Amino acid sequence: MFNEYLHTLFTKGFPVEYFVEGGRSRTGRMLQPKTGMLAITLRSFLRSSRMPIVFVPVYIGYERVLEGRTYLGELRGASKKKESIFDIFKVIGALKQRFGQVAVNFGEPIKLAQFLDSEQPDWRTQELGPHYKPAWLNETTNRLGERVAQHLNEAAAVNPVNLVALALLSTTRLALDEHAMARVLDLYLALLRKVPYSPHTTLPEGDGRALIAHVKDMNLLSEQSDALGKIVYLDEQNAVLMTYYRNNVLHIFALPALLASFFQSSSRMNREQILRYTRALYPYLQSELFIRWSLDELDAVVDQWLEALVEQGLLRFENDVYLRPAPSSRHFVLLTLLSKSIAQTLQRFYMAISLLLNSGRHTISAEELEDLCTVMAQRLSILHGLNAPEFFDKSLFRHFIQTLLEQDVLRRDEAGKLGYHDLLGELAEGAAKRVLPAEIRLSIRQVALHRSEEAAETPPVPEETR
């Protein structure tokens, strides 16, 4: 009945609104699309394509969300609270806070007929069966979901709160001198103007100082004065909350942050080296963060970002080689801060591979690896003080493992256990050396090794005799 109701709406040209994520993000990241409504829409269109269907992505960006702390509590394991009529009194108190501005941006429309032409060129002449469920429906619907999510992310609103969050959460102590903070924000704005993420992405007005003042007014930023000037910082409570806002724009900064990461361990790299490592890591970042550029577009975009980094003094280009600034320079500090914004994502990738390698071939399933990664990430977050709940978000590990399977890096055997290529360890370590500090790699390997030793020492449970 519901399918018929929607089919009537579509064929008569009524606008229909639905939320492809299927719920509210608890991390501030774009969620993996739920494809149920997309599949119903696609089947309706296959049934009757006389009335065109166009998806219009609408991005709603907040500088502050009312439920922010509740979301993060749920990520840390707290149960979702039931709604109550008495909650209205809590809301009245919460409304005394400043919530800033709300941005409503429209992304690039997706014409369903054109999308099907690119995915299934002969869809109009195919025999689709009585229920309009061709064999390619699920795979095509999944790709449609990814396309919609990418177009939503293209319309993201960069605002003062998520830029300040991105900058301060990249520091060791969640603090910066106010003048240095303004320079970081001015740098990020300059980079985004030089290499716009998309024509639909919006940037805030004003310079770094204006952005800092705006976030202070919202009571999300603390300050302390000394003889040398003002220090702005995040207190413990706001530090966790600000991870949500940083994640709203993490996809925009992921690629330049990855490029910056290469120069934390290497003082010089040529273009071919940069492209080789970028191509190796990009598919996993793109899949997790719904980044817009295809692999065919990647090289050209990397060149644009390298040019922008050189223009801002974060890199030098001499004799066909890119060079990092002197480690004692201000520009190297800025380059390092940029690289830190993607560091935790890369650490999760490396940890999952390390745990798999230590477990050995055909000994662990994808689900078991997912559970293991979550537990080990919680331990690592305690050891390194990573105050970001999404670091051990189970769904992120699940999606990374699924992407490894889709890329044929991993394969399931008949028993559902994971196998991998002989060179996986060598390739993973080579890439990790380029983007992760030695102490982080060592800590991850120690945690992974400790788990393997525990597993080896645990005696098998005897089967119950019958």
What does this protein look like?
It is a single chain. β9 and β10 form a beta hairpin. Strands 5-7-6 form a 3-stranded antiparallel β-sheet. A 3-stranded antiparallel β-sheet has the order 8-10-9. It has 4 domains: 99 residues, no CATH class; 93 residues, Orthogonal Bundle (Arc Repressor Mutant, subunit A); 90 residues, Arc Repressor Mutant, subunit A (Orthogonal Bundle), CATH 1.10.10; 114 residues, no CATH class. The mean pLDDT is 88. The radius of gyration is 24 Å and the shape is globular. The protein has 19 helices and 12 strands. It has 466 residues and is mainly alpha-helical. 55% of the residues lie in helices and 9% in strands.
Short summary:
With 466 residues, the chain is mainly alpha-helical. The protein folds into four domains: 2-56 and 109-152, no CATH class; 156-248, Winged helix-like DNA-binding domain superfamily/Winged helix DNA-binding domain (Arc Repressor Mutant, subunit A), CATH 1.10.10; 251-340, Arc Repressor Mutant, subunit A; 343-456, no CATH class. It has helices spanning 2-11, 36-47, 68-75, 87-94, 112-119, 137-154, 160-168, 178-194, 208-217, 236-248, 250-265, 271-289, 295-311, 330-340, 343-359, 366-383, 394-406, 424-435, 438-457; strands spanning 54-55, 58-62, 102-106, 110-111, 175-177, 222-226, 229-233, 268-270, 316-318, 321-323, 410-412, 418-420.
Q: What's the oligomerization state?
A: single chain
Task: Let me know the average pLDDT.
Answer: 88
Main beta-sheet annotation: 3 strands, antiparallel
Sequence of strands across the biggest β-sheet: 5-7-6
The number of helical elements comes to 19
Q: Return Rg in Å.
A: 24 Å
Span between N and C termini?
Answer: 50 Å
Which descriptor suits the 3D outline? globular
The total number of structural domains is: 4
Percentage of β-strand residues: 5-15%
The strand count comes to 12
- The helix content, as a percent range, equals 40-55%
Low-confidence stretches are none
Structural class: mainly alpha
